[in-house]
Amino acid sequence: MPTINLNADIAEGWGAYDIGNDAELMKVIKSASVACGFHAGDANTMHRLCMLAKDLGVSVGAHPGFNDLWGFGRRRIQMKPQDLELLVAYQIGALQAMAAYAGLKVTHLKAHGALNNMAAEDAAYAMAIGRAIQAVDRNIIYVALYGTEMQKAAEKLGLPMALEGFPDRRYADDGNLASRAIPGSVLKDPNAAAEQALRMVRDGEIIALSGKRIKVKLHTLCVHGDEATGVAVARGIRQALEAADISVVPLTDMQL
Amino acid sequence: MPTINLNADIAEGWGAYDIGNDAELMKVIKSASVACGFHAGDANTMHRLCMLAKDLGVSVGAHPGFNDLWGFGRRRIQMKPQDLELLVAYQIGALQAMAAYAGLKVTHLKAHGALNNMAAEDAAYAMAIGRAIQAVDRNIIYVALYGTEMQKAAEKLGLPMALEGFPDRRYADDGNLASRAIPGSVLKDPNAAAEQALRMVRDGEIIALSGKRIKVKLHTLCVHGDEATGVAVARGIRQALEAADISVVPLTDMQL
Amino acid sequence: MPTINLNADIAEGWGAYDIGNDAELMKVIKSASVACGFHAGDANTMHRLCMLAKDLGVSVGAHPGFNDLWGFGRRRIQMKPQDLELLVAYQIGALQAMAAYAGLKVTHLKAHGALNNMAAEDAAYAMAIGRAIQAVDRNIIYVALYGTEMQKAAEKLGLPMALEGFPDRRYADDGNLASRAIPGSVLKDPNAAAEQALRMVRDGEIIALSGKRIKVKLHTLCVHGDEATGVAVARGIRQALEAADISVVPLTDMQL
Amino acid sequence: MPTINLNADIAEGWGAYDIGNDAELMKVIKSASVACGFHAGDANTMHRLCMLAKDLGVSVGAHPGFNDLWGFGRRRIQMKPQDLELLVAYQIGALQAMAAYAGLKVTHLKAHGALNNMAAEDAAYAMAIGRAIQAVDRNIIYVALYGTEMQKAAEKLGLPMALEGFPDRRYADDGNLASRAIPGSVLKDPNAAAEQALRMVRDGEIIALSGKRIKVKLHTLCVHGDEATGVAVARGIRQALEAADISVVPLTDMQL
Fold it and tell me: Which residues of C touch B77 (CB under 8 A)?
C-alpha cells in the first residue's frame, strides 16, 4: 500500500494572539511543523501543540524562521549564515524541550516563510539549516523543496530528507512553485487540489502550468490552515488520497 | 580535600550589545550560568560561551529569566506559574542545543534576577522552575538560595540541588541576603569577600550583619562580573580558597 | 441635553496578528483608546485606526501599556516611575505622528491593563503617567477611574481629567470594580449593562453589588470588543443612552 | 565665514545595554541623529540625549532604523514601502515627545544602517522615508547621501535636504562610498580624515580612490563613535575645520 505524509505549519499564535486553525488542521495532517518562538509561536503554543500531537499520533517537527516576529517571518532578511545556523539550532532545542513534555522527539525540520524561500535559492542559507540539524540531532528529517539548494544541502550533509510538494499550488516548468501573482496558481477548490495530490503521489508527477510533466518522488505534501479555504482543501486532499488506497502516515513512517 | 564550586552569571550580551567581562570571569569560575535569550543572551552568545566552557573545563547551566529583555530580567513580573514553567523549559532546551555544539550537557539551572528573587519567596514560582527541570532533564541541578522556597521545591520534587552563597554580599539573621540598600552590604574589597568565602566553605557558617552565626552547608559560591570590581573580587575569592587547600570544582563534581 | 462619552480600547493587533472587533466597535464609540506599540499595536494598526477615526468622527487617545507584548500588557511589572513616565511619553509621541496622517490630535490618554490597574493604586505610577502627559501635551485628557490615585494625580498636576465608568462591570462599596472572580460581576447581557449605563449617566449613581448607592459624576463609559458579547453589549448601551435622550459625544465635547 | 555641520549617530544603547561613546562625541558634533527605539535606543536614552543636546546646543534629529533590534538595524530587510513609511513616522513622533522634555524640536532625519544603505539605492524606500517626514513635520531636514535616491526623493517631495559626506571614508568615482572591504577605505588616522574634511568643505570636492576629483556641495559631515578611534578622528576633524576658520554649526543654521 503506497504511503504519503501530510504536513502543515502550525502553532503560529504568540502571547495573547492566535492565528490559523490548528485544532481542525491537526485532525487532517500526520506531521506538524511547529513555530518555535522567533517568527511566531511561544512556549505555550509549542507545549499545547506537542500534547495534542501526542494524542492524535501526529509527528512533530521544528518550523524555524527568522527572528522577525513583527514580519511573521515573511520578510527576507540578509544575515550571516553562521548566525542563521545558530538561530535555527536554538529553535530546534527549544522545541525539543517542549516535545519532552509529551514524550515526543522532534523528528523533522521545515523552514518557515522567507527563510524557506531564501534557503531554496541560497546554498549558504540551506547549508546553515542543515548544519544546525547536524549539530543538534542528525536524525531530524530535513524537509526540502524538490530541486532546491535545500535538497542539495541535505544530500551533501548526508541528512535524512523529505521532498515536499504543494498540492494547492501550481508549478513552473523547472519544478518550482509558480508565483502567487499568476492567476490560478493557488488552488482554492478542494477537488482541484485533491486531483493534483493524487497525481503527485499515485503517478509521481506534477503537471506544470504549461502542461509539462515533471517526474518527482515526493514524501510529504503541505497543506495550509491560514486561509479560509485551507482546512476544506486539506480535508479534500486527505479524503482523495485515502479513497485511492494511499495511506497517510507520519513523516517518521515514510521510506526516505 | 574539601571542595566548592564557583559560579557566575555569564553570556549576557545580546545582538550587537555586550556586557560584563566573560573572558576574565570564565578563568576564575568552574560553572557558568548562561543567559538563554529572554532577559539577555542569544544563540551567538550561548554558543560562544559553550565552546569556551568546553575549553576551560567549566560546566554549563541554564540561567533563565523573565521574557523581559528591556528590563534585563530585573523587573518583577507577575505571571501564571504554568506560563513561567514553560518559559523556563523552553530556555533550557535552547541552551541544550547550543551545548550540543560543544559536546556538553546542561548540568545546572540558576534563575536570573527578579525571577530568582521572586522564586525565593513564592512557592508557585519555585515549583514552576522545578517542574521545568523535571520535564526536560531531571538530572539538572537546581541551584537554590538557602532557606528559600526554591530549596523546598527542589526537595519536594526530589531534584538534585546545590545551595548557593554570595561571598560578596552580607546576610540578614534569617539567612537571606541583606538589602543592597544597607551600606556595606555589598563587599567590593577582594579581601573581605575572600574572608567571607572561607568562612562559608571552611567553617560552614555565615556571620550575619548582626554578628549572628548561621550554620550552613553550601555547594556553590556566586561571583559577579558586571561591576568594575567584580573580577578582582572573584579572583581574590578563588585564590583564598585554593590557598586554604579547598579545591574549586565544577558543580557536577560536588557531592550534593 | 445631557451628554456622555463612550470609549473603547482599540487597534490591539500587531504585525500579522489581529484581535478584537475594531470595525464594529468604532461605529458604537465616540473616543478610541489606541494601543501604541508596546503591549499591542504597531504603526500600521495605529495609522489605520486614526484614518478610520477621522471618517467616523471618533476622537483619538493614547492607550499606553507596559513594554510587554507577550503579556499583552496584562502582567503587573515593577519598574522605576521615571522609566515608566518616559515609556508613556514615547507612546504618546508615536501616536501623535500617526494621528498627524489623519489631521487629528491625540486628545486623551487611558492606561492599559496592568498599568491601569497598578496606577489606580500606586501614586508614583499615576503621577508618572500624568507627568508624561504634562511633558508632551498638557491638553491631553487623563482618563481616570473614580477615587483612584490616577484621579488624584490628574488633580495634583492640574490636567484635564475624565472619570470613567464600566457599565458592563459591577462595583464594590468603595467605588472600585468588583473582582472578575465574583460570579455576576461581569455583565454579558446587553440589557443589564444598558440599565447600569443609564443609572450612571441619568441618575449619577452606581448601585454596588451590596445594593449601596454611590453618587458619581462620570464623563466616559468604557465598552469592550475583546469578548464575543462585547459589541452587542456596547450597542445595547448606546441605544439605551440615545433612547433616553442622552447624547453620545467625543471626549473632547464633554464638559470636564 | 564658511559653515559646516558635524553629525553623528547617537544614543544607541537600549535597556541595560550601552554602546558607543555619546558623552565625548556630543562635545564634538553639532547635530545628533538619535536612535528611536527600533534598531536601538529607548525612551530613556532618547530623553537623556535630548536633555544633553539642549545643554550643549546640539540640534536633534531622528535616526530611524528597521524594526530589528537584534540586528542593530544592520540587516537588509525587504518590506512594503508603506509599512516602512509608517515605521519611520512612528519613530519621528516618539522622538518628538522626548525632545519636548528639552524644549527642542526634531529638526532633521537620517536613516540608520541597512535602511540608509537600501534607501540610497531604492527609490521606493527613499520616498517612504520622505513621505514620513512630509506627514509628520515637513520642516524636518532629510539628510541624504549625494547622488542617491534619497537626494532625489527629497527633491521630488520638496523637503529641506542636507547632503552628507563621510570624511573618514574614501569614495568611489561615482561619488558613492568605497566598500569597507577595500583596504584603506576607512580612515582611522585623525589627520587623514581631517584632511579629507577640509577638502570637502573648503574646496568643495572629494578625491576618489582613483584620484578623480568630484565637485560637491556638502552640508554635513558624519563622524563616528562606535570604533575605538572614532572620537579621536571626530576631534581631529573639528579642530582642522575650526583652524581653517570654518564654523561648525547645527544643521538648522546651515544654508540648505
Answer: 68, 71, 75-78
Q: What is the DSSP code (8-state) at residue A252?
A: G
* CA B168 to mean position of chain CA atoms: 13
Q: Which residues pair with C8 in a beta bridge?
A: C32, C223
Residue B1's pLDDT band (cuts 50, 70, 90): confident
Interface residue of D72, D74, D78 to substitute, partner A, most A CBs within 10 Å: D78
Please, which residues bridge with residue D141 across strands?
D108
The end-to-end CA distance of chain B, in Å, is 16
Residue A251 per-residue DSSP state:
G
Q: Which residues of B79-95 are buried (b: 16+ CB within 10 A; e: fewer)?
A: bebebbbbbbbbbbbbb
This prediction's pTM: 0.97
**A55, HSE (Cβ side, Cα atoms, 13 Å):** 9
* Contact between chains at C93 and D89 (C-beta distance less than 8 A): no
Amino acid present at C155: E
Distance CA A222, CA A31 (A): 10
pLDDT at D133: 98
Residues of B whose CB is below 8 A from D69:
15
Q: What is the mean pLDDT of residues C151-178?
A: 95
For residue D201 the three cell numbers come to 568643505
Q: Read out DSSP for C141-186?
A: EEEEETTSHHHHHHHHHT--EEEEE-TTB-B-TTSSBPPTTSTT-B
Nearest to C218 by CA among C203, C204, C198, C231: C204
B105 pLDDT higher than 80: yes
Closest CB to C69 among A15, A19, A40: A15
Collapse the DSSP code of A231 into the 3-class scheme (helix H, G, I; strand E, B; otherwise coil) and give the result: helix
The 10s digit of each residue's pLDDT in A82-131 is 999 999 999 999 999 999 999 999 999 999 999 999 999 999 999 999 99
- Asked if the model's pLDDT at residue D83 lies above 80, the reply is yes
Q: Which residues fall within 8 angstroms of residue B203, CB to CB, at 6 or more apart?
A: none
Q: How high is the pLDDT of residue C1?
A: 85
Strand C213-215 and strand C205-207: the pairing is antiparallel
Best of C34, C49, C79, C90 to disrupt the D interface (most D CBs within 10 Å) is C90
- Above 80 in pLDDT, residue D226? no
Show the DSSP H helices in chain D as ranges.
22-25, 43-56, 81-101, 113-121, 123-136, 149-157, 190-202, 230-243
Residues in C touching B75 (Cβ below 8 Å): 77-79
Question: Any idea which architecture B3-253 has in CATH?
Answer: Alpha-Beta Barrel (3.20)
Q: Whole-angstrom Cα distance, residue D144 to residue D107?
A: 14
pLDDT at A179: 87
Q: Which of the other chains make 3 or more beta carbon contacts under 8 angstroms with chain A?
A: B, C, D
Collect all residues from D whose CB is shorter than 8 A from any CB in C: 37, 42-44, 46-47, 83, 86-87, 89-98, 100-101, 135-137
Nearest-angstrom CA–CA distance, C145 and C162: 8
Task: Calculate mean pLDDT across residues A67-83.
Answer: 98
Nine-digit cell string for C131: 507627568
Mutation site, C39, C74, C77, C91, interface B, largest B CB count within 10 A: C77
**pLDDT the model gives residue D180:** 85
Given a cut of 90, is residue D228 above it in pLDDT? no
Task: Give the pLDDT band (50/70/90) at residue B198.
Answer: very high
Shortest distance between the Cα of A226 and any Cα of chain C, in A, equals 11
Tell me the three cell numbers of residue D109. 532625519
Q: Pull the grid cell for residue B240.
A: 583564598
Strands D106-109 and D59-63: parallel
- List pLDDT tens digits, range B13-68: 999 999 999 999 999 999 999 999 999 999 999 999 999 999 999 999 999 999 99
Rounded Cα distance between C173 and D95, Å, is 43
Cα–Cα dist A60/A164, whole Å: 16
